[in-house]
Amino acid sequence: MIEYIPCKGLRSVLIVNVVTILLRYLNAKKQKIKQFSFHHVLLSTLIDYYNAGQTQKSITAFANLKKICEEHLKDNYTIEIIDLKENPQLAKTDQILVLPTLVKKLPKPVKKIIGDLSKTVRVLVGLDIVEV
Fold first, then answer.
1. Quick one: 44-132 is in which CATH superfamily?
2. Which residues of the chain fall below pLDDT 50?
3. Sheet with 101-106, edge to edge strand ranges
């Protein structure tokens, strides 16, 4: 588990980006991906999906998210599922108040989307996949 280190300005952004890259590298090694590219890591989308257990709303939201990512991001995405029933302290890091919540961390800027993600166009705009 990574503990949040409060920093100000560019330093905090660099720490978050370096930690994200290292986590993706370790995940690729764990999955035995032979052709790991830091260029691919930097260009792919990192999404944190916050929920509170397996409710109908969270199951629907995750299914919608996965469908959108598979159709529009191909293999250039990573979804990290964060269950706040198991780790409620993690809600402070991204200031999560409502569930389910989606937080797009990379590429910057960070964006949050709340709800069951059933409105595909709004999710695509929120993830900066399409422009308005």
1. Glutaredoxin (3.40.30.10)
2. 1-14, 38-41
3. 77-83, 45-51, 101-106, 111-114
